[in-house]
Design goal:
Length: 251
């Protein structure tokens, strides 16, 4: 690749990133002021209660939070808000397909593109299911990880089919709690203290090298983790180059 081709490729990536950020900002504009305050609390943005909606949006914009459509979509899901029609999942899927094409750099035919699109839809469907999943806990009983895993396997099997859901799969990096479609690893954790996050770093790094996507699904029933704990952990995983990890907290 020539110098000018590299320059053009870099410029395109930058433009796409700016478009994605602009789209994320427009998504936030559709939220109520109370929801914007929740967003600030979730991502550690300092604000004053007397701020107007416009002031909150400006505060978020210049806060340093890495705004993108995936992050804002996750927030919409967490507060149970429906994404407006102009920001449908088709856009998300197109972004995922483009990223997949960039990673492989070998996809050329329409047949292969169709296969990537299907993979993207499976990933979107899995992400949505994990965010909505709620374990069943009997009164006055402490849920154990084995019970949580069994419930998750049963739930995923009903959606993706038993053949596409592997429990305690053997991998080069050890045993993975659950693997869906041979590509997406799921690690389940019942959180008892913030120190558990650091203890999982090495394990998650190994999984990330072996699977297309790794989900860390955390059941924080006693609210051991603060938003800052999760955000700090996300930053650390990025520094460790674990780029295909997605963290889903649940209470």
């Amino acid at each position: 690749m020539s110098f000018f081709d590299k320059l053009k490729k870099g410029a395109k990536k930058q433009v796409d990133k700016l478009k994605d950020r602009r789209n994320a900002r427009n998504m936030l504009k559709t939220l109520r002021k109370s929801d914007l305050k929740k967003f600030c609390d979730e991502y550690g943005v300092d604000f004053e209660k007397s701020m107007t909606k416009k002031e909150l949006l400006e505060k978020i914009d210049f806060s340093g939070v890495p705004l993108n459509t995936e992050l804002v979509t996750d927030f919409f899901d967490s507060i149970k808000r429906k994404i407006p029609k102009q920001f449908t999942r088709i856009y998300e899927e197109d972004i995922e397909i483009e990223q997949e094409i960039t990673r492989t750099e070998t996809i050329r035919t329409e047949n292969v593109k169709t296969k990537v699109r299907k993979t993207s839809r499976t990933l979107t469907k899995l992400r949505s299911h994990l965010k909505q999943f709620k374990p069943i806990v009997a009164r006055k009983k402490v849920l154990k990880e084995r019970e949580l895993e069994a419930q998750m396997v049963q739930s995923l099997s009903a959606v993706f089919g038993p053949r596409n859901v592997n429990y305690q799969e053997r991998a080069r990096s050890g045993r993975v709690d659950i693997v869906v479609a041979d590509k997406y690893a799921i690690e389940l954790k019942i959180i008892t203290s913030p120190s558990q996050l650091m203890a999982m770093m090495g394990q998650l790094m190994k999984y990330s090298e072996e699977y297309d996507k790794v989900f860390l699904w955390m059941y924080d029933v006693r609210s051991q983790l603060k938003p800052k704990d999760v955000n700090d952990f996300k930053k650390m995983t990025k520094k460790a180059s674990i780029t295909n990890l997605e963290i889903i907290p649940n209470r």
